[in-house]
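<instruction>
Derive structure tokens from the sequence
<entry> Chain with its tokenised backbone below:
===
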Amino acid sequence: MLLTDELSNHVGGLWGQCAYDWLFIELLAVPAEHRGRGYGTALMAQAEDIARSGGCIGIWLDTYEFQASGFYEKLGFEIFGTLGDHPVGQKRFFLRKRF
């Protein structure tokens, strides 16, 4: 799914794939100048609709401590795993949302 600006330029989006009854979100990109306008939430809602219609039982993804785990938790995701020191001094979180 692509995020386009008012001039129809591609400025971000979401990339994922369904496998083994789950949608894995590989990438969600919303440039800083477009954040806070609901675009990330809208992309995630669209991904959830696609996952549900494809028969998936949930969505999973990973993110880093210095990125957006709080954003995903507000959308109903829960942390199910943590990898410490990846990179050193930071954590990598694995999150899921079951339907």
About this structure: The two ends are 21 Å apart (CA to CA). The mean pLDDT is 96. Residues 4 and 10 are 4 Å apart (CA to CA). The helical segments are 39-53, 69-74.
